[in-house]
Amino acid sequence: MTKFADIKGFVFDLDGVITDTSVLHGTAWHQLADYLGVAWNTELANGLKGISRMDSLEMILKAGGKENDYTQAQKEELAAKKNTNYVAEVDKMTPANILPGMKAFLDDLRAKGYLLSLASASKNAPRVLSKLELADYFPKVVDPASLTHGKPDPEIYTKGAELLNLPASQCIGVEDAAAGVQAINAAGEVSLGIGDAKELGAADMVFANTADVTLANIEKALG
Question: How many domains does the chain have?
């Protein structure tokens, strides 16, 4: 087992770890559903979590009985419209959208010389970081376009460690989703999960919320 003293770098997921953009995705889909005349409800909102843009669109069209009303090209236009809505929401973000305790944690990591990289599958991640005024904390960002596999495949976390020129065993991956924790473990990094201990049971350590993530608590967990 890796010891705390061996850790040199941290590879961060973005959503649910540094900020919560799922709310913004929800708003953007809600706007598209309104545009399509499809009734929005909690069940639909929850069903869209964690699935791809095109699958989400299909789900909304199906909910309104409109799955056969559009050509593939029109569907792609609708998906692009959703992304435009989303980017407009991202552009309203400020440092107030950083999750509790995360700014202090990042400041501490930087002050103590840890290397940081971002492993987010979102193409909009650099834009989000810039709105949160955190871009300079993450000079190394994995380019989602360079990936051939999504989480739980370890590729994104492997690349996150490579960007830091560190062996995986000297990195802690930070995640809020079970698939992400699997990816970190498969990459050979130490996994830190944020959220439900049952759901993230495969992680090396789990903290209930972002405010609990501190170097002192990580040291306690790793020894």
Answer: 2
**Same structural domain, 14 and 26:** no
Residue 116's beta-bridge partner residues?
10
Q: Domain end: 90, 118, 134, which one?
A: 90
Neighbouring C-beta atoms of residue 72, cutoff 10 Å: 8
pTM (2 d.p.)? 0.87
* Whether residue 15 lies in the annotated active site: yes
Per the DSSP assignment, residues forming a β-bridge with 190 are 172
Convert the pLDDT of each residue in 79-96 to its tens digit: 999 999 999 999 999 999
Distance CA 117, CA 12 (A): 6
Q: What is the pLDDT of residues 173-197, one digit of tens each?
A: 999 999 999 999 999 999 999 999 9
Amino acid at position 172, single letter: I
- Name the catalytic one among 6, 15, 107, 136: 15
- Is 13 catalytic? The answer is yes
Say whether 140 sits in a helix, a strand or coil: strand
